[in-house]
Design brief:
The protein has eight helices and 26 strands. With about 400 residues, the protein is an alpha/beta fold. The chain folds into four domains: about 160 residues, Molybdenum Cofactor Biosythetic Enzyme, Chain A; about 60 residues, Alpha-Beta Complex (Molybdopterin biosynthesis moea protein, domain 2), CATH 3.90.105.10; about 80 residues, Beta Complex (Molybdopterin biosynthesis moeA protein, domain 3); about 70 residues, MoeA, C-terminal, domain IV (Beta-clip), CATH 2.40.340. The longest helix has 19 residues. The structure holds ligand LQZAQKY5 and molybdate ion.
Length: about 400
């Protein structure tokens, strides 16, 4: 059976559903979401010419002084009059430039004696020094944020300065996490005989923590078609139903038949990715189903390449896929076969060193890594010193 290339599988996954519905929320709640509409400036910034420093507003032509101090301009309360020749106005950072003045001399460069101001330093070198021009940051009507942009902390601040108290975003995406496997027990529970603590759901929850999601705990479900189908049915209101485990070809790998028994329509199964080959995706009613492999490293890597981009897409991101960086390989890597490989690596100062173990169950190696080295399918051996593409994973 031919394996679907990673990029094609990503495109098909994102095509399974449109972004979720919109809502208008406060800036505090909008942080970390994606703008659902362009955000225009509702005001000019600065609203007037402002001082960028504490000092005195003067006319450049009057240099080198002296001046008569005739008033004060502070942020929030400007100087009402007009400064004349050889008149200066005491001014503070963020205060409007008084009429009649054009330049700021900083207070470290003058000496004041009563109302008399004399220059003691070099003074401003050019007209307009330390003046922030009205509208120089943005003008009313400018597009501050484009629809589909992430609402980063700086963009939240930009929206506030632009006059907004709330923004239109996509509602939080509901993600159900279902762990499958007879051997699994919840983290922290006693582990008897052949049992294994279930790590995937908590890992995925942590991976989703920086996204606007509402996580639904779908529990740990035994390897039985009826139990799995019932578990899918219980979370069918979710936007995304994620399973881990049971995705491969063994007799106890029942996610695919159980999804079909629950009424899901599968779009693809098995991709050209190592780790992560048995990935499957489809739809169950209005939900997208994403079946991740059970091996913890495989589940992790496919969550980075598929689950997070899917959530970002449903949140309205215009660029939902992870961004790669370039790094210099610290040691040789063998040639690849028919699957793209995502090699766990330790990335520092532009150099990436492959982690000790590349086994898809090796958790210590995964936890030591901060990047995936992305290697194309059917690639020749890579040598130390070569430039490779990497995906940060922390
Ligand atoms: N004959 C073949 N065997 C396998 C193939 C194949 O193509 N032919 N593919 C292999 C690949 S690649 C992967 S990846 C694994 C994944 O298989 P499953 O998705 O069916 O995963 P399971 O068999 O259920 O579990 C694999 C492994 O992971 C442990 N596991 C499962 N869930 C969790 C969890 N929530 N937390 C921690 N660990 C978990 C499970 O105990 C197993 O050890 O299949 C290969 N086999
Ligand atoms: O592709 Mo599996 O995901 O190698 O471990």
């Amino acid at each position: 059976m031919s394996l679907l290339p990673v990029a094609e599988a990503q495109a098909r996954l994102l095509a399974l559903a449109d972004p979720v519905s919109i809502e208008t929320v406060t800036l505090a709640d909008a942080a970390g979401r994606w703008a659902a509409q362009d955000v225009p400036a509702l005001r000019d910034q600065p609203f007037a010419d402002l001082s960028a420093m504490d000092g005195y507003a003067i006319r450049f032509a009057d240099l080198p002084g002296p001046w008569l101090v005739v008033g004060e301009s502070a942020a929030g309360s400007g100087f009402e009059g007009v400064a004349g020749a050889h008149e200066a106005v005491r001014i503070f950072t963020g205060a409007p430039l008084p009429a009649g003045t054009d330049t700021i001399v900083i207070q470290e460069e003058v000496e004041r004696d009563g109302a008399t101001l004399t220059l003691t330093g070099d003074g401003p070198a050019a007209i307009g020094q330390h003046v922030r021009r009205a509208g120089s940051d943005f003008a009313r009507g400018d597009r501050l944020i484009a629809a589909g942009d992430r609402l980063t902390p700086a963009r939240i601040g930009l929206a506030a300065i632009g006059g907004h108290g709330a923004l239109t975003v996509r509602r939080r995406v509901k993600v159900a996490l279902i762990s499958t496997g007879d051997e699994l027990v919840p983290p922290g529970a006693p582990v008897l005989g052949a049992q294994l603590p279930s790590s995937n759901a908590v890992t995925l929850r942590a991976l989703l923590a920086d996204l606007p999601v509402e996580v639904i705990d779908g529990g740990i479900i035994p390897d039985r078609i009826d139990a799995l189908a019932a578990a899918f049915d219980a979370v069918r209101d979710a936007d995304v139903i994620v399973t881990t485990g049971g995705a491969s070809v063994g007799d106890h790998d029942l996610v695919r038949p159980a999804l079909e028994a629950a009424g899901a329509v599968l779009d693809f199964w098995k991709i050209a990715m190592k780790p992560g080959k048995p990935l499957m995706a489809g739809r169950l009613g209005s939900a997208v189903t994403l079946g991740l492999p059970g091996n913890p490293v495989s589940a992790f890597a496919t969550a980075i390449l598929f689950l997070k981009p899917l959530v970002a897409h449903l949140c309205g991101a215009t660029a939902p896929l992870p961004v790669t960086h370039r790094a210099t390989l610290a040691s040789d890597l063998p040639k690849t076969a028919g699957r793209a490989e995502y090699v766990r690596g330790i990335w520092d100062a532009g150099v990436v060193r492959p982690a000790a173990s590349q086994d898809s169950a090796a958790m210590v190696a995964l936890a030591s890594a901060n990047a995936l080295i992305q290697r194309p399918p059917n690639a020749a051996a890579a040598h130390a010193g070569e430039i490779v593409e990497i995906l940060p994973i922390t």
